[in-house]
Amino acid sequence: MSEVNQAGRDASPQEKQRRRPSREPRHAMPTQTAGERVQNFDEVALGYTPELARAEAERCLQCKNAPCEAGCPVEVRIRDFIGALIDDDLPRAVAVLKERNALPAVCGRVCPQESQCELTCVLAKRGEAVAIGQLERFLADWDRERPRAQRNVTVHRPECSHRVAVVGSGPASLACAGELSLRGYHVEVFEALHVPGGVLAYGIPEFRLPKEILADEIDSLRRARVLFHTNAPIGAIASAEELLEEGYAAIFIGVGAGLPRFMEVPGENLNGVYSANEFLTRVNLMHAYEFPKWDTPIMRGRQVVVVGGGNVAMDGARTALRLGAQEVTLVYRRTQTEMPARDEEIEHAIEEGVRLVELAAPLEVVGEDGWVTGLRLQKMELGSADASGRRRPVAVKGEEWVLPCDTVVSAIGTLANPHIHEIADVALNEWGYLETDEEGRTSNPRIFAGGDIVTGAATVILAMGAGKTAAVAIDHALRDKQ
Ligand code: FAD
Ligand code: SF4
Fold first, then answer.
1. Cα of 72 from ligand 2 centre, angstroms
2. CATH class of 18-150
3. Which CATH number fits domain 163-258+416-481: 3.30.2090.10, 2.40.50.1020, 3.50.50.60, 3.30.1490.20?
């Protein structure tokens, strides 16, 4: 069978040579050393050089059915963007990537590709998947560094008359806004905080997702005619139903699930106890990461204990180290194997010196004169599997001890805001999250929703997938009403 190139013509001998997959192992991304990076808030991973990106792209088999694409919630044409990279056609590679993903520089940095596209890559079965996320990041960064006039511009459908309001500005909302603007709608985003981006702005620290990278992707949406209103909490300034009355044709709600879950143990209100949300918001939005330039009110503890085992806990622990803690301990009630955080984040945290105490649960925050002095822990063991399939932690009677510390950061999950009904009068499920069908329709046919406020705390890419799906459904609902 003859090989064909991207234009459908028979491939030239040079192209055939270029398309031969290399047998090299996966190329690791250069990073700052652990010793260097704990001294600063700069990005840990440094990104591929063009040579490394090309070499990694050449590992791709360019599979006919591209199983990697089935693992991508926003349906990026992965094989084609990697194919263009192999052909050294970077502008085409960027165009293919951005056609389906409004936030490639963000996704290339924080998406759990190992459980998405890279999990379904055929090479994963034989050893190591193509580093799809790192190639995505390389292309997004390459495009960002080009002169403005040369940068990729996504082609939009002609403008239509409908205005759509998007509530919240996390990844679900940004993906929804991007897709609607591509489809010609006038989109206005209403964000309660003073900065857009949701968790990408207030939660994920600078060393994993620099603020300027996020700001640039949001600027691309602005250039695509999306209008952002900040300091605009819907529910307080107007409800979704009032926005409909004001003339918006449809509403998308992507307000996330940002209410911290507390440990509910005695001593939780002592000085020095933070929820991870508050701790990370003070660092990210109140600029504690720029200490001493910004004198942010935050406890820069010497002995910090972070409770939890997810990405949020890793971010809390690694942030505490960078703020100058001498000792940071992660306390988790199961073992490292069951931790929900990305493997890369756990490895980075341990490399940086975060100590792990497995099979331990908080019983009490101990204090003196109103300030934290320790965390009393209960020894746990793993029992039978629970509903999530993970083995349930069970207390080992009589085995307790106090871990001395001056700061406790609780990162044990989040919930939906109980005031959600003030935003829209639509059906909620028994846990207080918005109820939608598979396309994001709520009980009001003109109000749609997606992301963490529907699924509970999940991932950036799942939120983006939900936002995009809802945008398509909104388009179908409104197209006929032009
Ligand atoms: P959010 O990102 O929560 O955004 C919701 C936005 O709505 C917020 O800006 C909020 O201020 C705004 N809002 C709320 N109420 C109103 C209102 N009434 N009016 C207007 N605006 C309102 N996922 C990954 O895939 N990879 C990671 O590495 C990762 N790391 C994480 C680290 C941290 C610290 C946290 C907290 C989460 C992390 N996640 C990660 C999870 C991921 O960030 C979330 O699943 C995702 O951001 C959810 O997106 P969303 O759009 O639904 O909501
Ligand atoms: Fe390339 Fe893997 Fe996708 Fe095949 S499955 S096209 S090897 S990235």
1. 12
2. mainly alpha
3. 3.50.50.60
